[in-house]
Design a protein that fits this description.
Helix content is 67%, strand content 8%. By secondary structure, it is α+β, with helices and mostly antiparallel strands.
Length: 818
């Protein structure tokens, strides 16, 4: 009986742990267990005489019957599946054959036009449509096969978890029948799944070939489009070129028909879905514009023009782009949407510029005059015309544009240098484009003109957006949590504006035939330099992190500067500069690590760079690193602080700023001296104001011998104590320092309240001392020397002066010579 109960518990555990059978757990063979052992065994050994009640037996019987019913139902479903598989897969082979034939034709076209990007793109779109249609045909069979596989997994789990006693047959007859039914269900379901796999094998193989062909075409398209735009010049003076163009003129309509599934919806269902997406996108974007307009309540005419003209153009273009999204874009709708958005950008960029320069409000958007020729360039690039015809039409358009520009008066704007420069540059650019076109490089000519217009509009849009951000930043208050959060949003808006400006150029590229393929290949995949990969997403993230870090540094330093004034915070104000420096360096270090991580640089690469830097430091950067380390020591040890009066290397001045390389010291002659930080650490430094601003000064006085010493002392102390800049404590003192050669020397020690007034205070006290000494007839003696001659030399004892005698002797000798 115990063995039977273990089997029952194992089967019950299997069904309880199976998610699909959690609502119908497996139960034990209660009657069989009672027949052999006379009852149900309990886990406790002392309960061997336990007899279940009638209610317990009935409950186990119901659960067991339900479990057997589930297995029987699975068996019945498996048998029905075996009969139905042939019916479900009967028409699949014919459908596969038809799609295989069409795929072969498309594959032949792809091989024939392997160097032409336009037909290849159309072939790729057609293969995608065939694959979608084929999936719809095989979808019921795929779903049925998935259901059969799920049931097979459930039954296989039951079989795998049966205990060893069941496999050896040491169970009751009823349990053996149950195990047999489970085995039959597994075998039948295995056969059903195998039949479905056999029927779906050609379908899976065909889909794999479809995907491989599309992947191959997708890999070649960017390079083919690049080759198309960088093609060799058209020798339009060669008669053979004209003959070939005339022969290929008939292919214009066939080219349009081939590209029609790529450019526009074809079936009625596709048109309906496209129209629905257009209406939905237009409704929601228009609703957001209306709500935003009511929320802002624009008062100026420029702001109203933004909401009434610029933003509706953008909404319409976005709706056209949204309507073209079906997994693959309908390229004509995408191009129309991009062109409408470009028109909206022209108005929006000019409106944003007028917010900063309202004096030109009456003038029309200056870049609007560049749009017609730009539209013509797009149309020529878009249509499948022969290169010779494109060249002739483009050259004619350039000539017309030059004639119009000569007749048009040049409009000057007072403060808008970008617009003035672009309009002045346009005629020169038209001549350059015409020269390229006449040289047969009409593709280069059109690309150059489009690049000029797109870059000009992008820069104007960025300048307008940044001026709007600056205006919003200037109107914000400097305090408060709301102001800080708003500044953070503004900091995030700056990279968004720059990214929008860059995206506007990408929008122009995406409008070109093959532009999306080239952007996907050259832009988003990026380029590799060594082991580092760069792409647009990484650059945008790094720029955003830069502006966020800068805003966080600004807010953090401002918050730290206000900490000493906060009530309840006992923070020394002299600690704030060091805290601000540490906070700034920490944030910028985090930004640097984030930027390196975003670029894919690993720690091993950084260690290699650090090793190279260590060698460079040892040879050529020792002084720089010494100053850097010394700067960190000065900042965090607080030996020096801004405002301290120091003396180092014979220079006395006030510390204005401590950086990581040098310290800026302002002398009392108003000269700024940048002292390397290493001098403060390696040489003697005198900080006059490190303890306090009060300093002691000495004034030396010498009075004549015979003066009243006590009176001199009293007068000196009285003069010192009367002065307002002299501190009462520590008290002033007078020292009788020496008996000089000519004077009695005194030294007056005074404590001045501030170092900055020490020199002026000493000068004023000297003046008052001189006045007091004159009043009391005390002589301030000057150095003098008394010479006492004991014995006069004999030759000097005569009456005449020796110099006079020498002069007379000289005159006598001169007369004799004459």
């Amino acid at each position: 009986m115990l063995r039977h109960c273990l089997v029952i518990v194992a089967v019950l555990f299997t069904f309880c742990m199976t998610p699909a059978f959690s609502q119908a757990p497996l139960v034990a063979d209660v009657p069989a267990a009672q027949a052999e052992g006379g009852g149900v065994a309990k886990p406790d050994a002392q309960s061997s005489d336990y007899q279940p009640t009638r209610a317990e037996v009935d409950a186990w019987e119901d659960i067991w019957a339900g479990q057997r019913g589930i297995i029987n139902e699975i068996n019945a479903k498996a048998m029905a599946w075996r009969k139905r598989v042939a019916e479900e897969t009967a028409g699949l082979s014919e459908a596969s054959r038809l799609h295989e034939e069409e795929f072969r034709r498309l594959f032949l076209l792809a091989t024939t036009f392997k160097d032409w990007p336009n037909p290849l793109e159309a072939v790729s779109r057609r293969i995608a449509a065939i694959a979608r249609h084929l999936r719809l045909i095989f979808e019921p069979v795929v779903l049925a096969r998935a259901d059969a596989q799920r049931l097979l997994d459930r039954v296989s789990q039951i079989v795998d978890n049966l205990p060893e006693e069941v496999s050896k047959g040491r169970v009751s007859a009823e349990m053996q029948a149950y195990v047999k039914d489970v085995g039959q269900a597994k075998s039948r379901l295995t056969v059903v799944v195998a039949q479905y796999d056999a029927a779906l094998a050609p379908f899976q193989t065909m889909l794999k070939r479809f995907q491989e062909t599309r992947d191959d075409i997708g890999a070649r398209l960017p390079l083919l489009w690049t080759k198309y735009y960088l093609q060799d010049p058209v020798v339009w003076t060669d008669p053979e070129v004209w003959e070939e163009a005339a022969l290929r003129a008939d292919s214009f309509l066939s080219g349009i028909q081939l590209r029609l599934p790529v450019e526009l919806p074809v079936t009625l269902a596709q048109w309906g879905a496209t129209a629905l997406r257009f209406v939905v996108f237009l409704f929601f974007t228009g609703l957001l514009t209306v709500l935003f307009s009511r929320r802002c309540a624009p008062s100026s005419s420029t702001a109203r023009h933004i909401f009434r003209i610029s933003l509706p153009y953008l909404c319409l273009g976005g709706a056209l782009i949204g309507s073209s999204v079906t997994g693959d874009f309908f390229r004509l709708l995408l191009a129309l949407g991009n062109l409408v958005i470009i028109m909206g950008q022209v108005f929006l960029a000019w409106d944003l510029r007028l917010l900063q320069h309202p004096q030109d409000r009456e003038a029309a958007a200056p870049f609007w005059r560049l749009i017609p020729l730009m539209f013509c360039a797009y149309a020529l690039l878009y249509l499948p015309l022969e290169n010779l015809f494109k060249l002739l039409v483009w050259a004619g358009l350039l000539v017309v544009a030059l004639a119009v520009s000569r007749r048009r008066a040049v409009e000057k704007f007072e403060m808008l240098q970008l617009e003035n420069g672009a309009l002045e540059m346009e005629p020169v650019l038209l001549w350059i484009c015409l020269a390229f076109a006449l040289a047969g490089l009409h593709i280069y000519s059109m690309a150059l003109y489009l690049l000029f217009v797109s870059c000009s509009l992008s820069v104007e849009l960025c300048l307008g957006g940044m001026s709007l951000i600056n205006r919003a930043s200037e109107r914000l208050s400097r305090e408060g949590v709301r102001s800080a959060l708003t500044r953070l949003c503004i900091a995030l808006a700056a990279p968004v504006v720059l990214a929008a400006g860059a995206a506007s150029v990408l929008l122009w590229i995406g409008t070109l035939p093959g532009g999306l393929d080239m952007l996907r290949h050259y832009g988003f995949q990026g380029m590799n330099i060594g082991g580092t990969q760069f792409n647009i997403i990484q650059i945008v993230l790094i720029l955003s992190a830069f502006y966020v870090t800068r805003a966080a540094v600004d807010m953090g330093t401002r918050f730290l500067s206000h900490l000493p004034s906060q009530q309840g915070l006992q923070i020394d104000a002299t600690l704030i500069p060091s805290m601000q420096t540490a906070f700034t360096y920490a944030l910028w270090c985090i930004f640097g690590l984030f930027a390196l991580h975003s670029l894919g640089m690993e720690l091993s690469s950084l260690l290699m760079v650090a090793g190279g830097l260590s060698v460079g430091i040892g040879f050529g950067m020792q002084t720089i690193v010494n100053n850097f380390i010394s700067g960190l020591i000065l900042i965090f040890s607080r030996i020096l602080q801004a405002g301290d009066v120091i003396e180092v290397g014979g220079i006395t001045g006030i510390v204005r700023k401590i950086s990581v390389r040098a310290t800026m010291v302002e002398t009392y002659d108003n000269a700024l001296i940048y002292v390397p930080n290493s001098e403060f650490v390696s040489s003697r430094l005198i900080n006059w104001t490190r303890n306090s601003r009060s300093v002691r000064r000495e004034i030396k006085i010498g009075v004549a011998y015979g003066s009243d010493v006590e009176q001199v002392t009293r007068l000196l102390l009285a003069v010192a104590n009367r002065h307002t800049n002299v501190l009462k404590y520590p008290a002033s003192s007078v020292v009788f320092s020496d008996f000089g050669a000519s004077t009695l020397d005194f030294v007056l020690h005074i404590w001045v309240r501030d170092y900055d007034v020490g020199v002026s205070t000493a000068s004023e006290i000297r003046l008052q001392i001189e006045e007091e000494f004159r009043k009391y007839h005390i002589e301030i003696a000057f150095p003098q020397l008394d010479v006492h001659i004991r014995n006069m030399p004999p030759r000097l004892a005569g009456g005449r002066h020796p110099v006079r005698r020498m002069r007379e002797k000289y005159l006598v000798q001169k007369k004799r010579t004459i």
